[in-house]
């Protein structure tokens, strides 16, 4: 049986708003060959539609909303399965709101059962203080992913994990670990897609998230050197992918 590809986005399909040409040819060929693939991303910001549009603007064709599984979706599904209550406050953007609504949560900023934390690039002290109040009143903290910092063209910006850590410090409450490299996002994605670990291959540019997730779960991995890590990082980090390519077109 042909394996299903679970493909990372930033650093693998594009860098910010810059297309990675070989990645586009690879995906277009998968579509032509009717091979199954999904995008597995820690990025909780965009809705499925916004993800499609973001890729179309760079030149991708044939990408559908159902191709995306995000850390926001994994977080919302995980919370629905493991906890009572369906009232949620969130610090995040459209993608997190959509994921919560899709799982039957209602947004409530006065009496929430949960505070979800995804990346909110317009997060304010006021929003954080409102979330803190809800958490101190007993709401459960759920961070979508724990990326510490995010690579930007001119350096780095604060990642969602650093914001989640702030709430953990303030409330002495721990968030479950959802996004890559933690098992939850893979388990929820496999459940959602009706796949088993042996049915999938993880593709990504980040050894510490994409590839580590595969290594920890005995899932086949393809490391592509178009993003944050290079070949020399493999030994330094001691994280060994199944396959290494410099351009995804080498897989065709
Ligand atoms: Mg990446």
Question: What this model shows, in words?
Answer:
GO terms for molecular function: phosphatase activity. It holds the Pfam family Hydrolase_6. This is 4-nitrophenyl phosphatase. One of its GO terms (cellular component) is cytoplasm. The protein has 252 residues and is α/β, with parallel strands linked by helices. It has two domains: 139 residues, 3-Layer(aba) Sandwich (Rossmann fold), CATH 3.40.50.1000; 88 residues, HAD superfamily/HAD-like (Rossmann fold). Helices cover 37% and strands 21% of the residues. It contains nine helices and 14 strands. A six-stranded parallel sheet has the order 5-4-1-12-13-14. Helix 3 crosses helix 7. The longest helix has 12 residues. Magnesium ion (MG) binds next to loops.
List keywords for this structure.
252 residues; Rossmann fold; 2 domains; 6-stranded parallel beta sheet; 4-stranded parallel beta sheet; 14 strands; 37% helix; binds magnesium ion; HAD-like_sf; phosphatase activity
Classification by helices and strands: alpha/beta
Number of domains: 2
- The number of helices is 9
Order of helices and strands: EEEHEHEHEHEEHEEEHHEHEHE
Gyration radius over CA: 18 Å
Strand content: 15-25%
Q: Identify the CATH class of the largest domain.
A: Alpha Beta
Q: What's the end-to-end separation, in Å?
A: 17 Å
Largest sheet: 6 strands, parallel
| Low-pLDDT residue spans | none
Arithmetic mean of pLDDT: 97
CATH 4th-level superfamily of the largest domain: HAD superfamily/HAD-like
Outline: globular
Number of strands: 14
Question: What small ligands are held by the chains?
Answer: magnesium ion
Q: Give the quaternary arrangement of the chains.
A: single chain
CATH architecture descriptor name of the largest domain:
3-Layer(aba) Sandwich
The largest sheet has its strands arranged as 5-4-1-12-13-14
* Share in helix: 25-40%
Which fold name corresponds to the CATH topology of the largest domain? Rossmann fold
